[in-house]
Request: fold
Amino acid sequence: MLSYRHSFHAGNFADVLKHTVVTSIINYMLNKDKPFCYLDTHAGCGAYSFQSNEAQKTKEFNNGIFPLWGRNDLPAPVARYMEQVIEFNAQTQLAHYPGSPSIALQMLRDIDRLFLFELHSNEFTAMRENFTGNRQIKMAKSDGLTGLIANMPPKERRAFILIDPSYEIKTEYQQVVDTLIQAHKRFATGTYALWYPVVKRTTIKQMERKLAHSGIKNIQLFELGIRADSAEMGMTSSGMIVINPPWMLHQEMQASLPFLAQTLGQDGQGFYRIETLVAE
Reply:
């Protein structure tokens, strides 16, 4: 049974990392006149309130978006991400947080398309209400990993695919890697970004090893941690594994992650990783 609700975690440090990477990738893809499609396998509802009961219960935004709000010393990629948050709020107060679909919709052009998948009934209902009437968007209440395979290759021959599961089912760690390998066989030139939480480091290392030995080329990893790895502390860091990243992404993360690790890290334990898992 699906129980994960991102409203408890919206705007946390993991969202800051994920959406800094997402906005960098989309910004790069907009440099070409040709259309592309954005596919989100686990879209959620797309919009969150910091005043909701869920957000107020955890207040994870205090170690994420809130310390960045109103600062004028942000690295350029982080500032670009913050511009999307500011636009979504349309006011001087930080009251709402855009999910990945909302950020993508704000940035994409009329010629681009969005595919949003969400299996959780309540999340899908909220997503449909948030995006109803927009002909750019195709929404499906179905398994996003299956939907990804079915839609590759896209007619545009250009795509950015975000895979962002909750990992509430342990087999998802293996499933997302298997799906990535299948999708890449169908569409080898797409840009794929896989988000992961670090709760148990050995699990993430297994994912890294399998991807490194998959035969897929050009894989980079970007990770942000606010505390050292700990079996007792839950998610202490999270990362993005990107296949076929834009050429400038490595440089942009080098400018962003040290700043985020220092700013969001707790008790001086903030850290980051920037690694090439497989070269081009």
